[in-house]
Design brief:
single chain, TIM Barrel, 8-stranded parallel β-barrel, 11 helices
């Protein structure tokens, strides 16, 4: 679901102020070059999601829900990742935006400390400077949202991300969002449940699948997944999923997640 326009405008306004401060003090070329001098080991989220040994589920990590602005109590990304790795979760969507997601860029490396997990950075990407920052933060990929980028910018940002050695994951709302994107460079597509069939049957998705050695994941967003729903997805050829940012506010969230995994992926439990 796309954001309310007033909230979207507020986010863009604040992000532009943050980015102006950076670009007023640093040359874009220097930022780009500096991004290659730091980072961490790269772990492919695409490969991890397709692995028979891990659960094909992306878990978002952030202190605050965006729409409700509700804070999650006792949020500790390091301890959380350690617990979730035991459940064979290996891909995390880690928020770097402080104001709206309650995240922090340092949480990216924190999540990767001591575990071979893949981290996709979550932020409101509206400027290429943020992609160079993602590289320096140690992200393995970024989630680019077509709600904040027109088709031309989405394609350009995906290309920059790929050239940086990171995986671009694209949150899209229609096949038209992909009109200028090169299929062979994407790490995965993130869609709402209602849009999944349109993307699955598109020429873009079929071309992307054919070009990649590791299948391009079509990743469906949801607040939770029942056994019946998962069976329906499987029949449609959908095998990759992502929880929305409300999951941590469930009572005994990690215990409930463990039960969901046992129900839906008993062979991997």
């Amino acid at each position: 679901m796309k954001l309310d326009q007033s909230l979207k405008k507020k986010i863009i306004s604040i992000k532009n102020k943050e980015l102006k401060s950076i670009k007023d003090h640093f040359d874009l070329g220097l930022i780009r070059n500096a991004s290659f001098s730091v980072g961490t080991d790269f772990y492919s989220a695409q490969v991890a999601l397709n692995s028979h040994q891990s659960i094909p589920l992306i878990i978002p990590l952030q202190r605050r829900e965006l729409q409700s602005n509700k804070e999650i109590d006792n949020y500790d990304p390091f301890k959380m990742v350690r617990s979730l790795v035991k459940l064979k979760i290996s891909v995390f969507l880690v928020a770097s935006d402080r104001q709206f997601w309650g995240g922090d860029p340092s949480h990216i490396k924190l999540a990767k400390t001591g575990s071979e997990v893949s981290v996709i950075q979550r932020d409101f990407f509206i400027d290429e400077v943020q992609l160079y920052q993602a590289k320096s933060f140690g992200a393995d990929g970024v989630l680019l949202d077509a709600d904040f980028l027109d088709s031309k910018k989405l394609a350009a940002f995906a290309d920059i991300t790929f050239q940086l050695g990171l995986e671009p994951f694209l949150k899209i709302y229609s096949v038209s969002d992909l009109s200028q994107v090169e299929p062979e460079i994407i790490g995965g597509l993130v869609v709402e449940k209602d849009n999944a069939n349109e993307i699955l049957s598109s020429d873009f998705y079929q071309k992307a699948k054919a070009m990649k050695h590791s299948p391009v994941p079509l990743i469906v967003f949801s607040n939770w997944f029942s056994r019946q729903e998962m069976a329906g997805f499987g029949e449609r050829g959908i095998h990759h999923f992502i929880l929305d940012d409300t999951w941590l506010n469930r009572q005994n969230a990690i215990f409930e997640l463990e039960r969901m995994i046992q129900y839906n992926w008993p062979d991997k439990g």
